[in-house]
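Quick start: what a row looks like.
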Amino acid sequence: MQVQGWGMKKEAGCSWLHVKSKIHTFVAGGSNEFRNSPEYKKVWKRLMEEPGYVPDNDVVLHDVSEETRAMWVCGHCERIATMFALINTGSGTPIRITKNLCVCSDCHSWVKIVSKVTGRVIVLRDTNRFHHFKDGMCSCKDYW
């Protein structure tokens, strides 16, 4: 994305993880076929109905409708990668994701809830640190 008038380009959010001897890459807003699969929708619905999570659409800085904001925040690459890992790895298997940008506050809150609900350890490496999520808590103590 070109930042108008300044000649700057915004880097797209990208996450990747290693599952079954392959590296899988996810881009923010992408993976539409996977996101429309029955498995994805089933797990997504279960996770989104959990008490304690309300999407924070304020992390989307564009002047768009609330519905579009919610859709964009739920399409962040680390969420897609987490969902892929939940569906394609055995329960109890730790999930390790690397991201090329900083994780947003909403995704951070969401991954905490996912770790609590699923009982999975999730390690999310962003540009600043390793976030170790376990039982609904993060090693950064919500400071990043």
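That is the whole record. The two ends are 25 Å apart (CA to CA). The beta strands are 2-3, 8-9, 14-19, 22-27, 95-99, 122-125, 130-134, 137-138.
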